Amino acid sequence: MCWAGRMILGIFKILLVLVHASAACEFGPSPYRTTGIVCRMTKPAGLLLNQETAQVIQAAFRNAKFPNITGERSVRLLGKVAYGLTNIQVNDLSIEKSDVELKEEDAINIAIKNVTASFKGTLTYGYAGAWFLQLFHSVDFEIESSIDLQLNIKLMCQEDQLAADASDCYLTFHKLTLHLQGDKEPGWLKQLFTDFISFTLKLVLKREVCKEINSLAQMLANFVLDLAVNFVQDKDIIVDLSLASDSVIKTGYIESHHKGLVLYKNYSSILSDSAFSPSLLTESRMLYFWLSEHTLSNLASAAFLDGRLVLTIRGEKLQALFEMEDTEAQQKVVQMVFQGTSYNDSVAKVWSLSQPQISLQPEGTVVKSLVAVEVSIFPAEEESLVVLYMEKEITVTIQAAYAEKKLILQPLDSSIEFKVFKCTSDPSGNDPSIRNFMQNMISVVGIPEVISSIESALTSLMSNKGLNLFDIINPEIITRKGYVIVQLDFNFPHHLLLDFLQKKL
User: Fold this and answer.
1) Which of 109, 227, 326, 480 is buried deepest, with most CB atoms within 10 A?
2) What GO molecular function terms would the record report (predicted)?
3) Alpha carbons 312 and 307: distance in angstroms, whole number
4) 375-391 mean pLDDT
């Protein structure tokens, strides 16, 4: 989760986000006070992403719409010489190397070295002197060039969103040679045209290539921002990725800070003081996400308000829960609860009665909630009958991990306190066997089953948002008092960029 943050996830792609920004944002005196989500991309990640820069630059050159170049000049003895270059197109293009540098409190510098490009088109020229007849000629031409490209990208805030100003764009020409009709040794007239054209051609190439880079960057920016917003939004639940403070550029990392407010219909979480400090994150991994307890707790509240904390269990899963141990006591309880009805004609419903309380601690995420369990049977040709109803306060500590493109939630310590217990087979409540069995069943298999369902649902949600398309390496989810840190390395999915460029250009 960052601006970028598919969620999560946008300094992650900041080298692709080169949009123009026209206005700054106003922040309070404390740079981190209202931060709910932080994203840090370190220098190794920037170097990896910079490998994709060549694809963007090549696309910018190939997609640039070069205008016709015309000119006229008076030449002694020849009179006025007019020329025009039309149908200019890029033929061959290669890039020798690309370097990236983070300049503290200044900009991201990208240096593209030795862009070798060949341009082809048609040259039309004419001249009329005092003793020459007016003549016009039209020939094919080829321009060989060798260019260095320098981009200085400054991070800015525009309409509360992270943006980057890439208008600082320079082209340095090491070679610019005009060949006419394939002739590699131009005569004096052809050399004359080269002298005329070179200066104008350099200006046109610089203007059009830099303009195309910016245009392509804006498309990439919108694409990445759409990814980030989509990742932290599911139906009516939205995480606000507005900037909470100015972004930071250090020599070793780039960092963006976001409010992380949770919005749901007419419900909105409020800003709270943040526990974030830059010292909480290091520079040993490529990518870091810092999430506050406040943001995660409000996400759980929104899920509750949206009616998502409901689980229905039936059939084989229900049977597995109630037959976790093959004992006489267990068989007695099953007979009493289900009254001889088949599991296929029964259903258990589990739901949260109140908004869960989330507490982040070094040992894991502590979840406390008042939960209801209702077991119903469907006797033949009769309406459903509730045979068991319980309300209990459950506190469970969960450790999270992410491996093989799946979220893994491991329940640790748990406690159960019954608030309400009703069973039709024991209306007086004098038989403790059912309550004791349910206490054991909930602890041993009930809580893991519910957490497994949440685990599967969240994995499916993240995969639908596209997280499974990224090659995430050795991710770690570290909980501390009041916050959680996600740190990882990654390989960039090269095909995603190619697919995007093919669709847009």
Assistant:
1) 227
2) cholesterol binding; cholesterol transfer activity; phosphatidylcholine binding; phospholipid transporter activity; triglyceride binding
3) 13
4) 86
